[in-house]
Give the backbone structure.
Amino acid sequence: MSFPWANEYKPSHPLMVWFDQRLPLPRLVYNAVGGGYEVPRNLNYFWNFGFLAGFCLVIQIVTGVILAMHYGGDTSVAFNSTEHIMRDVNWGWMLRYGHANGAAAFFAVVYLHIFRGFYYGSYKAPREMIWLLGVVIFLLMMATAFMGYVLPWGQMSYWAAQVITGLFGSIPLVGDPLKEWLLGGFAPGNATLNRFFSLHFLLPFVILGVVILHIWALHIPGSSNPTGVEVKSESDTVPFYPYYVGKDGWTIGLFMLIYSAFLFFMPNALGHPDNYIPANPMQTPAHIVPEWYFWPFYAILRSFTQNFLIFDAKLLGVLAMFAAILVWFFLPWLDRSPVRSATYRPLYRKFFWVLVIDVLILGYLGGAPAEQPYVLISQLATIYYFLHFLVIVPIVSSIERPDPLPFSITESVLGSDGAAKLEAQG
Amino acid sequence: MAQDASIDTPAVTDGEGVRRRDFINIAAVSAAGAGAVAIVYPLISQMAPSADVLAESSTEVDIAAVQPGQAIKAVFRKQPVFIRNLTPAEIEAANKVDVSTLRDPQTLKERTKEGHENLLITMGVCTHLGCVPQGAGVGEVKGEFGGYFCPCHGSHYDTAARIRKGPAPKNLHVPEYEIAGTVVKIG
């Protein structure tokens, strides 16, 4: 959709006119991320992370396709070909470090993008589909990152494959055959590595496809904004180009500074030294943890240590870990408050920040050893996590008295809005 | 149009009200569905363990040099197997436990062969998520119950390799094996 006052695509060059009449692709781009897309004028910097996430996906696809030209997806050569990239291939070290740190950067950006969605209620009607597709993208990212982590076939790679496919082994009845089917063997081996390489190459393009759906769904109602008040008139919006293209360009510069700091000065800061040891099926590393971006979910997995009724602890941990993300799918219907932005929701805002702290605690615990007191704290933090979504959010949304909303986006920016005055008179 | 209708109604309806066209539709969609299933089956089946993986079926280990209190690691289907020669004290510790209090109730006797109660042979694969527990190698942590300890998520196994504490649901799996003299044939 576009607002009635949005600019129309008017090609001036005869070639572009000719092209537009036969394939209106430039028109599509103009209306999607150009002067034809009208965006609320009051967006803050939290609205920059979607564009940045797209930029990260491009970094990953470009570096990844090049890495695949030098990598061998076979257990006999995988580790050595990774070292070959690091030592022998021209600029190979930069491409591989760029890809590994790019994955971390992608998750950092996406977590901030999700944070924005939670705080400003971006998941609420009429934007539920954007949110649902976003959760799908996040799940695909997790699968892609996991399979990519296995490819260097170091110790952490091997044991990540063993532990994560072990999750599927916990499913009653079909668990063991399912695990053997996923691995193509009884333990991670050549068949596993080869299929992970194939899927790791495929999934980013699936993500790209869902990203296009995500943006398509976004353009039906248009972008939300920090007040949560819908666009009412022309004075509430500015065209995406040049205003937000310029702003997004500036944050890409900032992003590149931080990304380059990691890439060039501390490329292994987020990795594990054990992954520079070739995979050894006979020896588990003493301290086995996933990459930092999986820590909160890993803490939830490990917090289940007792059987409950007919369910064993392992299955409960696995179910809870998946449920921790799947519960996001239901958020648009669990949160029944008609007010979107937490800025105008005093009670929800307090619980929102408690949840942020809870997730940070879970993140810390996911990276800690599986010992007391960490296990007990992660059990409490896991209980709170689910309490937030299943109990606190529905109750708060029905008992809360929100603060008064501004009449319009324009009023929130300028302090007054001609249309508001007219309505007050009428 | 009227002419079409007059031809259509009596000519293609049989006694039970099923038109020939319905039958052809159902038959065509069923055939296509059966064909799709036939195509999908090999696409799914190709991911299962291949013939060469399945062929690695058994392992033979000479255990003559394993003294009481010692343990060795062998390889079976690319996974570690622990072969442990229990000391009398370890056997006594395992037998002293009230089996009904265990998460996966089994006696040491059920987990070993007749006449070889000191010889505990288990997979070295934690039943939680598949890490290799510590305790078989020299100087490794044996956990709170003197058997094995899995460092990944903190599962403790006792001297009969039974799960006692932590998230693992089952005792360390005892593979099929035969003892002939000093040679153990696993698988």
